[in-house]
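Below is a filled-in request sheet from our internal design queue. Each sheet records the structural input a requester submitted and the sequence that came back. We keep these sheets so that new team members can see what a complete request looks like end to end.

REQUESTER: design group, bay 2
PRIORITY: normal
MODE: inverse folding
CHAIN LENGTH: 239
BACKBONE (tokenized):
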């Protein structure tokens, strides 16, 4: 991983909880809305202010926007106050909607200078331009906001990629490398279309046991090694 471990701690709040109607097994539930997960992040010890709050993937559905407005008002802001926008990747279901982009600073690869303790890491596969935002939360846990590098917990545990996009074998292999990198370095993952995922030894062990059945697993045998090493570190942390 190229990014430096962040030191300053940050609060975050989920504004829109992402959902996905398509399951990794291929079942489609049309009662479930297709929407991305969006969060707001601000420095611990500070009041959340427009110039000091980062919004991630603020692509709100009609229902999601109502919930986002409630959540953001609880910390004394409004959605119209959004200024700093991190976009994980430029698929249309993650891009800002219904806002004045002239008042926004949208970034993806370089963190604004006023946030030196937040890092950005490339996570290609689902999209060539996909990047994760990394910060340390107030409980001293490393949080990765990863967009669709990991769709949600079910897709991650199934080693599933979003097959409707018709990825090449190389793109699938790149997806698995990004998943392994995230799992090896994160304590908490905020995926593209689901709730937070806590990375535990049990979760890593499940992923390791299922990896051999993943599509194109033979192209990236080093991932099993990465996961085994990660599992050992989690089970036996350094003193």
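RETURNED SEQUENCE:
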């Amino acid at each position: 991983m190229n990014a430096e471990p962040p030191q300053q701690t940050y609060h975050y709040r989920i504004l829109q909880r992402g959902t996905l109607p398509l399951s990794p097994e291929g079942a489609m539930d049309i009662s479930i809305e297709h929407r991305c997960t969006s969060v707001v992040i601000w420095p611990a010890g500070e009041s959340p202010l427009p110039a000091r709050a980062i919004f991630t993937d603020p692509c709100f559905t009609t229902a999601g926007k109502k919930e986002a407005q409630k959540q953001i008002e609880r910390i004394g802001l409004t959605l119209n106050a959004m200024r700093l926008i991190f976009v994980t990747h430029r698929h249309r279901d993650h891009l800002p909607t219904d806002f004045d982009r002239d008042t926004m600073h949208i970034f993806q690869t370089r963190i604004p200078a006023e946030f030196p303790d937040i890092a950005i890491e490339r996570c290609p596969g689902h999209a060539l331009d996909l990047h994760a935002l990394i910060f340390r939360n107030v409980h001293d846990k490393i949080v990765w906001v990863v967009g669709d590098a990991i769709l949600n917990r079910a897709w991650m545990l199934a080693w599933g990629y979003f097959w409707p996009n018709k990825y090449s074998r190389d793109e699938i292999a790149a997806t698995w490398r990004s998943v392994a990198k995230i799992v090896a370095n994160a304590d908490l993952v905020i995926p593209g279309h689901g709730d937070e995922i806590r990375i535990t030894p049990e979760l890593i062990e499940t992923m390791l046991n299922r990896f051999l059945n993943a599509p194109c697993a033979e192209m990236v045998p080093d991932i099993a090694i990465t996961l085994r090493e990660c599992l050992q570190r989690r089970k036996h942390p350094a003193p």
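SHEET NOTES:
- The chain has five helices and ten strands.
- The chain has one domain: 9-235.
FILED BY: M.R.
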